[in-house]
Fold this sequence. Notes:
The termini are far apart. This protein folds into two domains: 18-146, Urate Oxidase; 154-292, Urate Oxidase, CATH 3.10.270.10. The chain has 292 residues and is an alpha+beta fold. α2 (67-80) crosses α3 and α4 (204-220) packs antiparallel against α5 (227-241). Helix content is 23%, strand content 38%. The chain is globular, with a radius of gyration of 25 Å. It has five helices and ten strands, in the order ββαααββββααββββ.
Amino acid sequence: MTQPQNNPARMNARLGENNYGKAEVKLMKVFRDTERHEIRELAVRVAMTGAFDTAHTQGDNTDLVATDTVRNTVYGLAKEGFQGSPEQFGKELIAHFIKTGPKVTGGFAEFSEYLWERVQVGGTGHNHAFVRQMPQRTARVEDDGSGFKVTSGIENLYVLKTTQSGWEGYLLDERFTTLPETNERVMATFVTSKWEYNRSDVDYDDVWQRVYRQIQETFTDHYSPSLQHTLFLMGQEVLAICPEISRIWFQMPNKHHLKYNLERFGLENNQEIFHVDPEPYGLMEAWVERAE
């Protein structure tokens, strides 16, 4: 006869930082107040923090907000609110869950906004037809009980220039350096950026548009001896035109465009034909901050 086995004693453990919520909530809002429609499309993640210990340690779900309710709330509040920026919508969401969730004391909301431009018909933007763009706008709103912290950003902004860039004067390792120095190359990168604010009374849509334009303008306006130098100039110029921003971070991979060897085929390559090398790639990351 098989004897029942006792469960082995569990080790002592304690619950650390934790949160729960709903992710990848896909939301589009169409503004139909006039014949010329506007649209905004978001991927939303909402996470709540609070007194959730017994749910983890004892399986007690009393007073927990269901994640299905979180999803429904995103859509419901988007109908009633979401008249402005994702950042402001994030404040509305977190405030709602703190108010209605008995065990919720804080949380965060993260957004990726897909950008749409109007289809051009005869040189004029169409009233209700749009084409999606490559970059995404990002935002994170969090509240730990002491007030909102907002971080905004950009992802997948692909920029390229065909001249006014080089890479020379670097360390030449006798064994392993094979890359020739150059003062004429194609420079391309996917810009990922995020920035923090030094005050709360911010027009987030306006700031985002200023940052978005300035990054692109700065990319064009100088000879770039390195991607690092261009990164710093971008941050410097953003801080100059956006006094609301305290600091800005960039991640910029160097998407190599290598001049292809056509001479072996008896053809001249005058900086015209390139091999786009997907990987590996150089990767530059830095915060640019205001000097004291």
